[in-house]
Amino acid sequence: MDIRRGGARLVAGAAEHDSWRAGYARTSPQTTIRYYQPMRRLILALTCATWFASAQPQLPSPTAKLADLLSFEAEGLIGPPEGWGGTIKTLFVDDQIVHGGKWSLRIEGAPSSGGQPSVMTKGIAIDFAGKFIQIRGYLRTQDVTGWAGLWMREDGVTPNLEFNNMQARQIKGTTDWTAYAFNLPVNPLARQLYFGALVVGTGKAWVDDMQLLVDGKPIWEAPKEDRPLTAIEKDHEFDSGSGVAVTSLNTMQIENLATLGKVWGFLKYHHPAVVAGRHHWDYDLFRVMPAVLAASGRTEANAAILQWVAGLGPVRDCTTCAHIDETGIYLRPQIDWIKDELRLGAGLSRALQSIYANRPADGKQFYVDQAKGVKNPIFRYELPYARLTLPDAGFQLLAAYRFWNIIQYWSPYRDVLGEDWDQVLAQHIPRIALAATSGDYQRELMALIARAHDTHANLWGSLPMRPPVGVCRIPVHVRFVENRPVVTGLASESAKAVGLEPGDIVDALDGTGISKLIEAWSPYYADSNDAARQRDLAQSMTRGACGSAAVRVLRDGKPVDVMATRVPLSEVTSESTHDLPGPTFRRLSNDVAYLKLSSFKIADVRRYLDSAAGSKGMIVDIRNYPSEFAVFSLGQLLVDKPTDFARFTVADLENPGAFHWGETETLTPQQPHYAGKIVILVDEVSQSQAEYTTMALRTAPGAKVVGSMTAGADGNVSNFSLPGGLSTMISGIGVFYPDGKPTQRVGIVSDVEAKPTIEGIRAGRDEALETAIRQIVGSDATDEQIQKMIKR
After folding, report:
1. From CA 586, how far away is CA 593, in angstroms rounded?
2. Nearest CA to 388 among 725, 786, 701?
3. How far from 179 is each of 196, 284, 775, CA to CA, in Å?
4. Which helix (H) or strand (E) holds 330?
5. Cα dist from 670 to 479, 635, 646, 676, 740, whole Å
6. What local confidence, expressed as pLDDT, does residue 79 receive?
7. Is the peptide bond before 742 cis (omega within 30 degrees of 0)?
8. How many CB atoms lie within 10 A of CB 405?
């Protein structure tokens, strides 16, 4: 699922302060990279508001009657609109403000929404052929604080095959009637189309005279197409549950289940019958799992698995056999385990080796595809099973197997896990299988996902279940400074009465030492490195039950006890950037220009550089997430010759687990050229697109990176579902410097290290920025001169 310029996608279920926003990066005219970066409260409930739709077995075919519904002329009374779903209490037909005809539809964003969207939605069957679906319509807004837009979504066996909600256009404030339109490709896997309009935040939007077109004609005139059902759509044996009940697991059962999980994943991506999509592979797992659990030992379990494998049918000797191209190979499949006859038994081992030798050579996989251009994996049929009733040991084990095997075969960073991945599977099987509640299950999945050490891989949507749990937090900002959690500022107006001060070191919460709490919480935080983990812990550590909270801090080396109050999360501001407040660009002095990317606009890039003309150097602050993609629009104005800055690795569909070197990315000089010195500021909030941008900008002549360890999660993301309606993702392509040096987990290594200090926090200083300024003006500048520039 690709994000292209002019569109954006919401990720289902992300929540609270660690929700994710989409960014995108052009790597070539045909290629788009998608990144994600945590930010505060991106609105993601639209997918949830229409989630019911993916469970509907029958939707109406589009007919000419749809025209009246789209123009709202089918309405007869002022009130909730008939024929539309969504957040009904905020939807009204209107006969006072219309674009055409007698009626329009009004969406009201309620002040009590907490920033959540008010949505109108309608669903129809995709039983027609075509290349593109276009939605058209007129929007008028009044005092919209967030944004408004039309939206469409295509679902199949899995949701969100195609999606756009016009978020990138940021229609807000008060506007007159304006026509809008966008296209979605008709996805061959889609079965349902959902569409409508929405308002995020408060305010009102009117919608009128909508149209749905397929290749330029009304959707009901599109030629009908019979879309054959897949094996997944035909097999319903375990729709109500796996039937696998487990109350305890002994050592032998755990070992046998680990073998089953590895064999299941191997067959999923290698056996011709499975690769071709002739089996509902999740449900086939439940057909063999009881026999493996009941086996008296390894031999009996292997025999049950071998019988199951044989039931898939014979594998013919290949005529054109798959092989690994050694040219440009970066990672080879870890497949030697199938030769282990001691563990698998001779029969099962030889069967697996035969399957591997005769694996399909056409580069096609039913369960995996690759995005056009970028070639990150697309996981097409990983069903969410959103209505799953927990506990269900079978589905819970399926979740563990699914994630483990996706890392095993499709993670470009498998070589930097720093874990024995086989041991990880065995260790988490009993924890996940025996999780007795939904909350326990989600937390155990978080613990497994954390072992992949990829900040992109988290259990998005379940973060409220990650410890510490609570819907309130102490209204202060906390950041790890000198490896201690330190209060850096106030996060709401009510925080003034808390009694905590910048520079306070958090020593205990509610009577428990902070080091003990961090030790208990850390295993549930999926992060690439310690810098990112500390960042995420700092954002979450004061969460808990609403009301009083006992806090012990160290102030000037002495313990101070403070009785603070946790307030609702909606009342707390975020600290997702460490850049200077205020304008995007400014001159700190005649010699020093400053540009922050958190509010950067591509349309203004020439103005920024014109304003920087004559300065000795420019500080580009990326202690944030770039608001727009600056790699080429800015980077090409800083280099004086064609300059390589990044190189990628991509997966091999014929050889799951293999990754090859792909193209190298290059900046080509453009005008106006800025010839001054470039200093780039980074720290732990610099992640993904921010890191990729830094890689590009540091190629400017004489450029230096100043700061501290970045988050170490770079590359296009690939998302997929886990049983229980859960969502996760992985970094889908490898991103390296042109010489092959890595970025994942390592992050962007600074040329000049600069970190905040506790003393600096108390004094209100930005020590990293001070260091960056000195890279331009020299070390002789006094502290007074530097502070004058920063406060200018």
Report:
1. 6
2. 725
3. 15, 50, 50
4. strand 329-331
5. 39, 9, 19, 15, 26
6. 60
7. no
8. 20
Q: Output the pLDDT for position 2.
A: 28
In Å, the largest CA–CA distance within the chain is 80
pLDDT digits 0-9 by tens, 492-520: 776 666 789 999 999 999 999 999 999 99
Q: In 10 A of CB 277, how many CB atoms? A: 17
Are 432 and 400 in contact by the 8 Å Cβ rule? The answer is yes
Tokens coding 590: 């005649």
Q: Across the chain, what does the average pLDDT equal?
A: 90
The label of the residue with tokens 């690795």 reads 649
Nearest to 667 by CA among 691, 695, 648: 695
Q: In the 8-state DSSP scheme, what is residue 25?
A: E
Residues 32, 374: contact at Cβ < 8 Å?
A: yes
In this prediction, the residues of the chain whose per-residue pLDDT falls under 70 are 1-57, 75-80, 112-115, 494-497
**Token reading at 78:** 């002022």
Helix axes 514-521, 530-540, angle to 10 degrees: 110
- Give the DSSP H/E element, type plus range, for residue 300: helix 298-310
Burial class (CB in 10 A: 0-12, 13-18, 19+), 741: exposed
Burial of 118 (0-12, 13-18, 19+ CB in 10 A): buried
* pLDDT at position 48: 37
Q: 194 vs 190, 698, 705, CA distance in Å?
A: 11, 44, 46
CA-to-CA dists, residue 749 to 74, 529, 596, 630, angstroms: 61, 13, 20, 20
Rounded to whole angstroms, how far apart are CA atoms 575 and 476? 10
Q: How far is CA 628 from CA 8, 135, 344, 596, in A?
A: 12, 25, 52, 11
What is the model's pLDDT at position 86?
87
- The radius of gyration computed from the CA coordinates of the chain, to the nearest angstrom, equals 28
Measured CA to CA, the distance from residue 354 to residue 313 in angstroms comes to: 13
| Letter string b/e over residues 126-142, b meaning 16 or more CB atoms within 10 A of that residue's CB | bbbebeebbbebbbbbe
Amino acid in position 616: K
Contact 478, 574 (CB under 8 A): no
Write the single-letter amino acid at 28. Answer: S
What are the two backbone dihedrals, phi and then psi, of residue 628, each rounded to the nearest 5 degrees?
-140, 165
Q: Tokens for 612, please give them.
A: 């920087």
Parallel, antiparallel, or unpaired for β 734-736 and 643-651? antiparallel
C-alpha 472/C-alpha 261 separation (Å) is 39
Taking alpha carbons only, the member of 472, 396, 459, 468 closest to residue 430 is: 396
- Check: CB of residue 26 under 8 Å from CB of residue 2: no
Q: What is the reported pLDDT for 18?
A: 29
Question: Could you write out the DSSP letters of every residue in 406-465?
Answer: HHHHH-TTGGG--S-HHHHHHHHHHHHHT--SHHHHHHHHHHHHHTT--TT-S-BT-GGG
Pair 171, 141: CB distance under 8 Å:
yes
**What is the chain's length?**
792
pLDDT value at residue 116: 75
Using CA atoms, how far apart are residues 219 and 53, in angstroms rounded to an integer? 20
Question: Is residue 669 a contact partner of residue 338, using CB atoms and an 8 Å limit?
Answer: no
Helix axes 251-270, 346-357, angle to 10 degrees: 20
Separation between Cα atoms, residue 229 and residue 415, nearest integer Å? 38
**If we measure between CA atoms, which residue out of 192, 178, 179, 181 comes closest to residue 233?**
192
Neighbours of 328 (CB within 10 A): 11
* C-alpha dist (Å) from residue 312 to 225, 260, 272, 517, 750: 31, 15, 9, 49, 53
| Residue-range domains of the chain with CATH | 42-221 (2.60.120.260), 234-459 (no CATH), 465-571 (2.30.42.10), 585-790 (3.90.226.10)
Q: Which residues are within 8 A (CB) of 228 and not within 5 positions of it... i.e. 6 or more apart?
A: none
Separation between Cα atoms, residue 504 and residue 730, nearest integer Å: 36
Specify whether the CB–CB gap between 649 and 733 falls below 8 A: yes
Place of tokens 């200077």: 580
